Amino acid sequence: MRSVHSPFVPPGPTRWGPDTVAAMEQCASVEREVDKVLQKFLTYGQHCEQSLEELLHYVGQLRADLASTAVQGTPLSATLSLVMSQCCRKIKDTVQKLALDHKDIHSSVSRVGKAIDRNFDSEICGVVSDAVWDSREKQQQTLQMAILEHLYQQGMLSVAEELCQESTLNVDLDFKQPFLELNRILEALHEQDLGPALEWAVSHRQRLLELNSSLEFKLHRLQFIRFLAGGPEKQLEALSYARHFQPFAHVHQREIQVMMGSLVYLQLGLEKSPYCHLLDNSHWAEICETFTRDACSLLGLSVESPLSVSFASGCVALPVLMNIKAVMEQRQCSGVWSHKDELPIEIELGMKCWYHSVFACPILRQQTSDSNPPIKLICGHVISRDALNKLINGGKLKCPYCPMEQNPADGKRIIF
Ligand SMILES: [Zn+2]
């Protein structure tokens, strides 16, 4: 199964902060221990193989000697019985030696464990007090749903189904349907089958246009290019397919002209013409990205699963939160962090984690939430509902900024 996730945001230049450098050094020191174990294991394997091989050969020879003695019917000679007892000792010694060497690997393995303990904080749970979470049952359910969504999104449908059964989660078809459809179409696109994607794009044409999506045009273009790749005998088919471009003529005029121009070179061979870029395979990767992005946005799904976004954010936020925890413990003010929806400090996650604007009430200096939304007063100033309620005096409200007097009921909730 292929992944629905498409990293179409090109990675920007990376700057490592001091925390990241320290974390990388920690990883490297654990890795060094792992490498030692692997090296030991490899050497042990080779040595073990060789010793056993030698032993087998030795025993085999002895067996042959014994067999020939038996055939001759002569009693066991003193030499042979000495060789036999030597053989038994040799077997015992080899096995003991191998067992000893094997034990030696154990100590290297336990050194890896110690390196992990030494380099990483094992008590991540302790970073956040239990008070900020929902009940354990609710937590587990939320986590299971997040994992499930991630699996569906990554196209790992059979694993998702298995998890559903094992966790006895009740997932209705409405939840899975968009993922199943997306995956089916993407699978086809990966096989260079445009049919299902075109069908989907045509049936969602209006909504795609509202999103300024050029998915349908790009799909038709790819189908046209396919005809071009077929050479001169496909010229008529290509020309007749070109009528599909008509609805997009005003937006994609330039690209349509390029495609029409390429027809001139069909006899000569497109691959040797100035239009050879049309045959580039990258168009297929591009169409998968366009489809994923536009279909996700139309179906109200995020391109990256909430689980992978949360995980990546957690990796960034954890070192900061661990520092905060240490500071709070030092100053004995652990009660500071008791809000469910808010971290004790702001943590910068980078532009790609900006999903929507947030509003902090200028009066209470708190981020607004569903239960305490931002309210626009008739003078245009915005404060939180809690602040508004606090400012009401004798049924009247005086704006703390302008200070226009007004009826508190005239304030309107706004959504950022
Ligand atoms: Zn005002």
From TrEMBL:
GO terms for biological process: proteasome-mediated ubiquitin-dependent protein catabolic process. GO terms for molecular function: ubiquitin protein ligase activity; zinc ion binding. Residues 178-235 form the CTLH domain. A zinc finger (RING-Gid-type) spans 361-402. It is found in: Cytoplasm. It comes from the Eukaryota. PROSITE patterns: CTLH (PS50897), LISH (PS50896), ZF_RING_GID (PS51867). Coiled coil: none annotated. SMART domains: CRA (SM00757), CTLH (SM00668), LisH (SM00667). This is RING-type E3 ubiquitin transferase. It comes from Ovis ammon polii. The lineage of its organism: Eukaryota, Metazoa, Chordata, Craniata, Vertebrata.
